[in-house]
Write a structure and sequence with these properties.
Elements: E1 2-5, E2 9-14, E3 18-25, E4 28-36, H1 45-60, E5 65-68, H2 80-88, E6 93-94, E7 106-109
Parallel strand pairs: 4-5
Antiparallel strand pairs: 1-2, 2-3, 3-4, 5-7, 6-7
Length: 112
């Protein structure tokens, strides 16, 4: 997986098929998106992209938490319920910081 790291962002590219963007704010991350090209969905690309992202940020050993807001991107992807289940498989839980703007906010501790 290719990783491009800038000051406040990280961009992940899994074989030009699946992509992820992460925002950085001090020692906290926000997973903005994981997107897989429609022709390659249900072939574990999103899973491998997320695993790659988590592996990379854990190796850095300077981030304590990662947040995400699971929202379906299009009608061909997972619906909200399935997205939440997908992220729960990787240890994300509903965040106590969920609010009206981010009602489905999820988080994962990285310093475990």
């Amino acid at each position: 997986m290719k990783v491009l790291k800038k000051e406040d962002k990280m961009f992940f590219n899994n074989n030009d098929i699946s992509f992820g963007n992460v925002s950085i704010k001090n020692d906290v991350l926000f997973l903005e998106i994981i997107k897989t090209l429609p022709a390659f969905r249900n072939l574990n690309y999103a899973t491998n992209t997320l695993l790659g992202i988590l592996s990379f940020v854990k190796r850095e050993r300077k981030y304590k938490k990662i947040y995400l807001n699971p929202l379906p991107l299009d009608t061909n992807g997972l619906n909200l319920e399935k997205l939440i289940c997908f992220y729960e498989k990787f240890g994300f839980i509903k965040s106590s910081e969920a609010n009206r703007a981010y009602p489905f906010l999820m988080e994962k501790n990285l310093l475990v």
